[in-house]
Structure formats: C-alpha cells, structure tokens
Amino acid sequence: MCVNVALGSQKVPAMFVFGDSIVDVGNNNYLRSYAKCNYPPYGIDYPGGPSGRFSNGKNIVDMLGDMLGLPSPPAYADPSTTGAKIVGGVNYASAAGGILDETGRHYGEKYSLSQQVLNFENTLNQLRTMLDGAALSRYLAGSIAVMVIGSNDYISNYLLPSLYPSSYTYSPQDYGNLLINRYARQILALNSVGLRKFFLAGIPPLGCIPNQRARSQYPDRCVDSVNQMLGTFNEGLRSLVQQLNSNHPGSIFIYGNTYGAMGDILNNPAAYGFSVVDNACCGIGRNQGEITCIPFLVPCPDRTRQVFWDAFHLTQAASSVLTQRAFYGPPSDCYPINIQQMAQL
After folding, report:
1. Active site residue 313
2. Of the listed 278, 310, 319, 320, which one is catalytic?
3. pLDDT digits (tens, 9 = 90+) for 133-143
4. Catalytic residue among 21, 51, 55, 320
5. Of these residues, 313, 319, 320, 333, which one is catalytic?
6. Backbone φ, ψ for residue 238 (5° rounding)
7. Is 239 a catalytic residue?
8. What is the DSSP code string of 204-258?
9. Alpha carbon distance 2, 133 (integer Å)
10. In 3-state terms, what secondary structure has residue 145?
11. 224 an active-site residue?
C-alpha cells in the first residue's frame, strides 16, 4: 500500500512523540499500570471526556498538533493505530516512564524511553510498507520528534529513596549526568534511523508541583532542594543540543526551557491570568497534592485560574502558555530556534 503524504495545511508531514504523562494521550490505558487517568474528572474540559490525558483538557502535544496543522498523534498502544492512522505520526509517551528503565516500576507496566524507541522502530517497519525509500527518507526528515521526559527519573525514582537506590548511589550531579548520557543514546538512535528535527523539553521546577509542596515542611513554598538538583540535567540537555547541532549538520535539535517558562508563570501568575499556583485543582490533602485526582473527585470550578490540575500535572490553561512559548518564543524559551522556525526548515 502506498500513501501520499503531500502537505495540505500541515506544516510538517508528521509528529512523533516520546515522553511521560505530560504528553501521554492514552498509552497507559492499554497497560497493566496504576498510572492511569481514563476516568472523570480527567478530561472534564476535553471534547471526548476522559481519554488517558493527565489534564482537564488538551495537553501540550494536542496543542502543538493544532499549531502544526496535524491531528494529535494517536497512542501507539491503541490497537487501531495502524495503516493510514500512523501517517501523521504516533505518540509513544507513557505515564511513569523515564529515561532509566527502572524509573516508575512501582506503578506497574509502562514504556520506558528505550522501549518507546523500539516501538518507533516497529512503526517504521509499517511505514516502509507504505512509502518507498526516497519518500520515506523525505517524510522522516521533515517530521518532528517531540521528547518530553526526565521528570519521573526524579519524582518516581531519585526522590523515592525507600523504593529506589539511586540517591544512595549517585550525587545529584552524577545522576543528572547519567540521565543525559542515557538520553543522548536514544536521541542518536532515532536520528540514525532518519528523524532530523528534534524538540527536547527540559524538566520543569518539580519542587513547585503540589505533590512535592505537600511533602515539605513549608507547603506555601517551592522545595528549593528539589529544584536545585535539576540544574545538572537542564544545563546538560542545553549543552547536548549545542553538541548535537555541531556534530549533525543535516539535523536540528532544539532545547525547550520548560524550567524558565514555568518559573515565569509561578513568579508572575497574574500576568498569565492565574490566581492559584500552589494547590492542585483536583486532589486531596495539603495543597490538594498528597493524593492525586481520584475517580469522581469534584475538581475546582474554574480551571482557567489554576496552574496545576492534579498533584503532578498542569491545567490545559497552563499547558497552553508553555506550548505558545515553545512554538513562538525567543531563544531564551527555545534554543537555538523555536518550533515554528524548525517546522519551516
């Protein structure tokens, strides 16, 4: 079967998404996992209701798809994600997944980053039956790989010393460097099979999420010790982007400064229309962050004023700010160019 991937209103032929619950669109619905959200009130503002998105509404890749003129790529694990459905891209992201294979294992099954890369190679085998060699090369070179991963390697690994030994084995700096080295291997694997355009999102200030605030002595403040340990990873990822761009002239890699953009929202919430930055919209306990959003819990009435939807994740409104900045932002938001500029290359 041959398909025509001529672009209509699309700015790129496809988007392939790798990551964790920030960009999962339902893969974990099909896995034996406790990290699921296919129940109300998740999706309370999403057109189809609960879908497996960890949000009240759309997530970042849904919005990026809108901006690129693409439907949001379907979940890889959905049995219907075959044939013509994969031509606009596929989403491999999995809640609880991390760069390290062991990250998030206490939640049950998930796709780690290395498994997501293997899953992409399965998709590629399908695409080879649909496109001839030259057309497939052009298609992959024009497509965008969106990679949003690393948060769970902290909140579902390094910051859980009772379950994972990593914080005894590695200093924060050594751990950050380990993550970057492992991440680089997977990025290069994707590059070697034909992807050429990469958006690599940094880790947000995890010390400010309701889950971490609720565990601290001072729930009205961000946990500085957590935020500080992320510097090695984020600075390392930005340096990796510079190195990859130098070493692979036919490709473009961009770093999304998620930490800086989120910091702006949290420091100047009113400028973005937010009034609640420390509590989840849906959750239980201190900061509504001790227990995350459980089935049929009544969420806050005005999701547009809240930064955080549940103990870990942003509202659609906050995700929209981050997406706009990644797509249109200056080099301080998206380095060395933004996603809009990359799509035009």
Report:
1. yes
2. 310
3. 999 999 999 99
4. 21
5. 313
6. -65, -40
7. no
8. P-GGGSHHHHHTSS-TTS--HHHHHHTHHHHHHHHHHHHHHHHH-TT-EEEEE-H
9. 12
10. strand
11. no
